[in-house]
Design a protein that fits this description.
The chain has 423 residues and is of the alpha+beta class. It folds into 2 domains: 13-167 and 227-316, Bira Bifunctional Protein, Domain 2 (BirA Bifunctional Protein, domain 2, 2-Layer Sandwich); 328-419, Anticodon-binding domain (Rossmann fold, 3-Layer(aba) Sandwich). It has 15 helices and 16 strands. It has helices spanning 16-32, 46-53, 58-63, 82-91, 136-152, 168-183, 191-199, 210-216, 228-243, 288-291, 306-316, 338-350, 364-373, 384-388, 410-419, and strands at 36-37, 43-45, 66-68, 74-77, 101-110, 122-131, 158-164, 249-250, 262-270, 278-284, 299-305, 328-332, 355-357, 378-382, 391-396, 402-406. Strands 1-5-6-11-10-9-7-8 form an 8-stranded mixed beta sheet, with helices on both faces. Helix 5 (136-152) runs parallel beside helix 9 (228-243). The chain is elongated and about 100 Å long. It starts with 15 loop residues before the first helix and ends with a helix. The structure holds one RNA strand of 77 nucleotides.
RNA sequence: GUGAGCGUAGCUCAGUUGGUUAGAGCACCAGGUUGUGGCCCUGGGGGUCGUGGGUUCAAAUCCCAUCGCUCACCCCA
């Protein structure tokens, strides 16, 4: 038997409803904030991610699905969406049409990691990017937007963490400071952290190893060495969050694994999804556009994991999807009337009435069971004596009542079904 | 890449110290008055016990290998 590739999942009809529910909520919410959808190709030139995300990141270093096409071009299945969106923004000069571009997306991403709870190799993210403004109000809006969506889904167990990484200049100054502090303690650090010392020293804060944490806890904090603008922007974000009633905590160790972040970064965690707690992560990336060849343009955004969110919703039973139903199930009492039933179905469907019937030549009892299983609101019996007298039987499945309707008057039938909805 | 746990019906699982034709619940199909659902009752179909090898008179059960799944580490959504 051929099975789905490791780390990929089928979304079966039995659980598609909650995806639709979420997608509808997303489109409505993004519209509320005036974001427009963008769709980019599933793969890109590898260089886009190498340059955009950063050569030293885990994503680029070991997680990408990279392959060569027949012309030997190196291609990569997108592991995240910010770089492609920025590429598209530059390529089509979206910024020339208006100074601020607000975009959202819902799409599959690919990363070759070992799967576990809340982690897949093909997974879906939704997110937003606002390109063209350095206003911290926009950073606050991102958090508000993401947090609002999670709240709308009924999620409770949420933590919003924020931090500021400052401008590149202050970050460089700070890195030197940190390097100086850690210099003589370097050989006490774990192997991973010693490697980070040279590649990306800030990520040492991410280490979960206790001995590392003991060393790093007395280190100077980036947040205490911010430049004036980063500092005041951070204050504005915090004020704005407080005003909109979003609970948050400042986490000076929140250093995200993508190199392009500047100033504000944030993460929304859930306690309901296993070890992978981050439902959503984002922040400001004022340098990325020029890194990818565009004009220097400030930008901010976030990405959220659909599977993780749905997992949290499932575990918290945060929302309930109503059962699916159809309006009418047509039952043929005489097996000779198959084509009559088919014709009636066409008529009903053309009038926007959802219906179905038995294609397996089963007994009336079997057809009734089927109607019941499909949550049909009505059953229409066709055949027998009524049919000979030009009538058919319409049965209301919630109260069991039946009424006769002339076979020739389909309008009366449609009227009945439409004006007599069962709540 | 590293570590741990688990593979028996479509699903959830039972299966004794190795011992007849491998079971249950749910789901599916048929029937329970000639043309009517849910509840209930009766019957039925469906399994290479993940795969390959080994031990044995005898393997779902013991041993080895292999594949797959799950969870965790790393990191991230």
């Amino acid at each position: 038997m051929i099975k789905a590739i490791t780390g990929t999942k089928d979304i079966l009809p039995s659980d598609i409803a909650k995806w639709h529910y979420l997608e509808k909520l997303l489109r409505e919410t993004f519209h509320l904030y005036n974001y427009k959808e963008i769709r980019t190709p599933i793969f890109e030139e590898t260089a886009l991610f190498a340059r955009g995300i950063g050569e030293e990141t885990d994503i680029v270093g070991k997680e990408m699905y990279t392959f060569k096409d027949r012309s030997e071009t190196s291609l990569t299945l997108k592991p995240e969406m910010t770089a492609p969106v920025v590429r598209s923004y530059i390529e089509h000069s979206l910024g020339a049409q208006q100074p601020l571009t607000k975009l959202y997306y819902i799409s599959s991403m690919f990363r070759q990691e070992r799967p576990q709870a809340g982690r897949l190799r093909q997974f879906n993210q939704f997110g937003a990017e606002a390109i063209g403004s350095k206003s911290p109000l926009l950073d606050a809006e991102m958090i508000q937007l993401a947090y609002g969506i999670l709240k709308s889904l009924g999620l409770k167990n949420l933590t919003v963490k924020i931090n500021s990484l400052g401008t590149p200049e202050t970050r460089e100054t700070y890195k030197k400071l940190l390097k100086k502090f850690l210099e003589d303690k370097k050989n006490k650090l774990s192997e991973d952290s010693r490697r980070r010392f040279d590649t990306n020293i800030l990520r040492i804060f991410d280490s979960k190893i206790e001995s590392d944490q003991n060393i790093i806890k007395d280190a100077p904090k980036l947040i205490e060495h911010l430049d004036e603008e980063s500092k005041s922007d951070f204050e504005i974000v915090k004020n704005q969050l407080s005003k909109t009633g979003i609970p948050f905590q400042v986490d000076p160790t929140l250093v995200r694994g993508l190199d392009y972040y500047t100033k504000l970064t944030f993460e929304i965690d859930s306690g309901s999804v296993g070890a992978q707690t981050a439902l959503c992560g984002g922040g400001r990336y004022d340098l990325l556009i020029e890194t990818l060849g565009g004009k220097p343009t400030p930008a901010t955004g976030f990405a959220a994991g659909v599977e993780r969110i749905l997992l949290a919703c499932e575990n918290e039973k945060s929302f309930i999807i109503p059962e699916q139903s159809i309006d009418v199930y047509l039952i043929r009492v005489d097996s000779a009337l198959e084509t009559v039933v088919a014709d009636f179905s066409s008529d009903l469907r053309s009038q926007n009435i959802s219906c179905d019937y038995d294609y397996l030549n089963r007994s009336v009892k079997a057809q009734m069971r089927e109607a019941n299983k499909m949550n049909a609101k009505y059953v229409l019996f066709i055949g027998g004596d009524e049919y000979k007298n030009g009538m058919m039987n319409l049965k209301n499945m919630s109260n069991g009542s039946e009424e006769k309707i002339p076979y020739s008057n389909i309008n009366q039938l449609i009227e009945r079904i439409k004006t007599n909805p069962i709540s």
